[in-house]
Each structure stands twice: as C-alpha cells, then as structure tokens.
Amino acid sequence: MVKTKNEYINREISWLQFNARVLQESNDKKVPLIDRLRFLGIFSNNLDEFFKVRYATVKRIVEAGKTGKSVLGGERAKDLLEEITKIVIAQQARSLEIFKAIEKELRQENIFIINEREVTESQAEFIRDYFFKKVNQELMTIILNDLNEFPLLKDTAAYLAVKIVMKNGSGAGKHNRYALIEIPKGIDRFVVLPKEGDKDYIIMLDDLIRFCLDNVFTMFEFESISAHMIKITRDAELDIDNDLSKSFIEKISTSVEHRKISDPVRFVYDKKIDKDTLQFLKEKMDIMGTDSVIPGGRYHNRRDYMGFPSLGRHDLMYEKIDPLPVKGLSMKGSLLDMIAHKDYMIYAPYHTFSYVTKFLREVALDPKVRTIKITIYRLASDSQIASALINAVKNGKQVTVQIELQARFDEQNNIEYANYLQAEGVNLIFGVPGLKVHSKICMVEREEAGELKRYGFISTGNFNESTAKIYTDYTLFTAHEGILKDMSKVFEFFETNYKINKYKHLVVSPHYTKSTFIKLIDKEIANAKHGKEAYIKIKMNSLTSYQMVDKLYEASRAGVKIQMIVRGICCLIPGVEGMSENIEAISIVDKFLEHPRMFVFGNGGDPKIYISSADWMTRNLDFRVEVGCPIYDPDIRQELLDTFDISWRDNLKARIFSAKQDNAYRKRTTGEAELRSQFEMYYYYQKKLES
C-alpha cells in the first residue's frame, strides 16, 4: 500500500528536521559558546552523511526512471530531491546566520576569528612563517585551463577555486587562469595566532592560504587573484560484486575504494564566487540536473568546528562529568563473582564504560574461562576491547569475533581490525549473507564444578570507549542461563545461517523482532478493549517502518496510551484525531547523543520491559541481525522506568513531534520547575549511590 502524506512524514524530510534540532542547539544560549560552534560542526557532518547515503539513494531511483512512490511514502523521487534541496538551502542560510551571531559573542569574550584581510603586521610574519613551515609542502594545487580531463575531486574535501586574472589580459576573461587548491586535511583547520594581551586570535587554514596565494602562484604575472571555496559529496552506497573468487574482505575493500570515484550528488559553492568561475567549474565537472547545487557561505566543511580549539576557556564549554560507579558493582573485585548473583546495568556516559573493558580483561586472564564470543560493529581507533580479546587469545582462550565489515563509514577501520585480529589468532566470522549484524552481545563460557557456566552482556550501543563518553546507552551484565542460552543460539546462527533457531527470551531480528513487538502491541489493544489499563512507552533513535507505525495507530484508536521518545526520524504523526490522538512523541537533543532503545508494554499491570539494538526501521527489523533482551531484575526494571520518566518530563530540551514539523520546544506549565533530563539523569544516579 502506498502511504499518503496525510498519514506519514517522509523519512528524508523527518531526518532533515532532526538535523534542524541539532542546528537549534547551536543557537541555544543555554549551550556554552564553544559547544555551540561544535554543534554547528555536527550539523554539517550530519548533512554530509545524509547526502552521501539518503540523497544518493533517492537520486538513484530518479536515474533509474522510477517514481519511488512505494518506498518514499507516496512522494515522487524527483519532487523529493527538489524539496530536499530547498530545505537544505534554507538550513544552510540559517546556519550562516547563527555562525555570525556566535562570532559576535566570541568577540565579546575576546576571541577573534579573523580573515586574511584583517591580519596585522605582526600576525603576517607569524602566518607566512607557519605557511612555509607547515602548509606549503602539503598543498595540492592544480592548474585547470590546459587539462584534457578535470581532476577527480575527493568526497567532501574542501577546495579553493582560484581565479587568476593575468596581466595584459583583454576581452571577457580571455586570459583568466583557474586553479584548485585542496585544503590539507592533516593540518588543523583552526590556526591559533599569538595571543595579544587578553585577546585570542584564530585564523582559518583556508584564509591563511588565501593570505599566501601570491607565494603559491609566483610563476604567473597577474593583476589580481581570488579564491572561493567549493566541495562535492559523492554517493557512498556500497556496490558489492558477486565474484566468487574474492573473499568478503576483498569485496568490501573494493567497494570502499570505489566510493572515491562514485557519482557526485551535491555541489556546494561560495555564493560570492565570480559567475565565470562557477560556470567554468560546472561545465568541466559535468554537474547534472539531479545533483543538488547549494549556494553556501565562505567556508565549507563546517564539520571541522567539532574540533574548535578550547583555548583554555573551560567556562565556554560543557563541564565534563566524572562517570559514576554502579551501585553494588565494584571495580576492585571479580565482576564475574558479582554478576553470578545479580544482574547489573550501566547507563553510559553517566556510568563508567570501564566495566565493559574490566569484564573482558578479567575473562582474558581467568584460568577457568574457555571461550569468549562477541559481536563488533564499531570500535574506537585505539580499542581496549580489541586489545583485551587478543590478550585472551594469548592466554589460550577460544575467541570468536563477529565483525561487521559493512558498518557505515567504518568499513575501512573494521577491515583493518579484522586483519589485525585474525593475524593474532582470533576466530573471525563475517556475518550472514544479505544481513548486517548490528547486535551488541558478548558471551563467556567458564568451567565451574565440571560444568560450563555462561556470563555475558548485551547493549543498545557499540563496544566503543570513545563514543561511550558522548552516546547514552544501556548495557546489561547477566548470568541468566536462559538469556545466555539464547545468546549462544545467535552465535550458532552466524556460523550456520540456514538454521533458524527459536528463542525463549531474546527478541532477534530478522526472524522475530517485528512479530514479537506486534504481538505485544496486540496484547495492549486487547487490554484496552476490555477496559484494562493499556500503555506503551518507547525510546528509540528512529521510527520509519510503516507496518509498525500502522500498528501504533491501531493501538491508539483502541485507546492504548503511547509515549514515544524518538531522537531522530519519526514517520508517525502523533495527536491526530481518529488516527493517533492517544500518541504523544518528543525528541531530546542535548549535550549527549540519545542512543538507547527501550520498550515498555503495560501487560495488564505486570510490565514487559526490553532493551534492544534495533530501532523500528525496516532495515533493523527485516535486514539485520539485532538482539533485544527482556529485563527481569526488579531493581533494573524500576531503574529503566525511572530513566524513561526523567526523559519524558524534560521541559528544556524536549521538542514536540507534530504534523507542523516545526520542532517546537515543549512548554512548561505554570509553576512547573525546569527539568533538563540529561543533567537530572546524572543527579538520579548520584542519589542512588548515596542512598
């Protein structure tokens, strides 16, 4: 059934509205000034990834001569591309306005971002010295006029398009020369200049190069020289060949390499660029009608603002929190001994992620541990997880790692880790044909009293020490035999794909997640029809499955009360009479990235509570191996209900989902105290330790 605009929000448009919420953070005075700049960087980085993947997918539909209405929620692909471009142009313009406002506030704090025209004499000496020592030898400069073929531009690299007006030139730009300079990636984008009194000065690397253009083009006699920034974004979808003679690693490696020459889907340029320069570039680059052409500001790749220098101004950044211990779970003793008696849960970054690495370090050394099995989706660049697993191999353990080589934009990193782990003796599994493995599970088998006893953990997020500092995620440590027996079956499925297991506890995609949650919703519908209390509480990243949306609409019409916290895409429209009047939905965007998936079903007074690696998206339900886990421990069940309630009551960073798609902040009622859920969450766990 083709969905209509009246029933659903298009997923691409909903994603752009999520990125608009990120942009809101950069304009929020409650956010420290330097962190506001960093949110601008996140906004820009998100947009790059959107064009590489989602825009590229829609463009492929258009170029295949199809409408795409059946998969785009009733939208025609061609119309959708135009709508996306229109929204992005407006968002880019808004981001420039916000940046100018932030720049003004930075100046009030004695932080000055200067351009090449504002350089003082003393700064000029430093800049030229810096240029010759660090920049000049890194520049890739290409003169374009005499080339038979336009050079291949790197995906999302920033380039200065240079126009050189030669001396003795005549006619309409007859003797203009054009060049491209690639902005070096290996040099900090922000060059901190010598401090003057209590004033800090920063010049962008782009402007530092502009200031030194006469040193770059000394071989030409020119009247004037100017440079404006451009960049392209390429299609990042992986096209994996069917060559049976190649290993899976070889196929993924080839596909990742192919990205470098894939079709461009977006061309962004400085709107002040000379018309003849822009025309020259568009003709040479063969920019097509289906490409998104975005006039932008003076600077691109604003994702680099994520690394804006702190300048020692901790008063202009979020205060770092010290991750808390979990009550009753000591880092000093044996974690296995403690987990043997009780389940424990960490909620990063409020709790320390060190419990995960401590667990793996312990089992790597424990003489009684026989096997370790773990799934890996994204690892930190210098991973303690990988180190602990190799340590386990060196101590004689059988270590099996299911590593997902198709983790978006981490493919190369995972290929390198796969080769590294394999060389160290780790048994690697590369997943299930046609399915990504997105589950976050680990299982250990330990010999106790002549029998094998299982321990393990299951998470809503990646086993990554770096992202655990900024992503919120639940991780459950358990020795529950039923859960771990099911987990063992998941690992069996990785090695024997044709065998579909049945599970008593875990909720596993692609075979059972959708059907299990539909049954749980049906139970709430039946309870509502019989006059019983019926409710559903959902926390996830994205909701795009029309089948699940339809089911929630059905539940709403039956009288089931539904509360949803969805960080990103939400195709469901809440609060519509006769369709979704019993559904409320909010999104929270704040200091940390909200990442956990949690589901609560009233179940007639005995709530069923799950954590999961899966969002309710078609890809997670039907085309990935995902694992959801029921929560049985009464303390952890209450904790999950409490944390959901804290998030639900947020009245500072919660935005309301509605048909308007205006990202309106939730309004406080008269006399209601301010509640910022991520800050309140930390206080909640502090109080648990004190009680």
From TrEMBL:
GO cellular component entries: polyphosphate kinase complex
Domain Polyphosphate kinase middle: 123-308
EC number from the UniProt entry: 2.7.4.1
GO-annotated molecular function: ATP binding; metal ion binding; polyphosphate kinase activity
Reaction it catalyzes: [phosphate](n) + ATP = [phosphate](n+1) + ADP
Active site feature: H438 (phosphohistidine intermediate)
InterPro entries for the chain: PP_kinase, PP_kinase_C_1, PP_kinase_middle, PP_kinase_middle_dom_sf, PPK_C_dom2, PPK_N_dom, PPK_N_dom_sf
UniProt-annotated binding residues for ATP: N46, Y471, R567, H595
Cofactor(s) listed: Mg(2+)
Entry PTM: An intermediate of this reaction is the autophosphorylated ppk in which a phosphate is covalently linked to a histidine residue through a N-P bond.
Function: Catalyzes the reversible transfer of the terminal phosphate of ATP to form a long-chain polyphosphate (polyP).
Name under which the protein is recorded: Polyphosphate kinase
Organism in which the protein naturally occurs: Flagellimonas sediminis
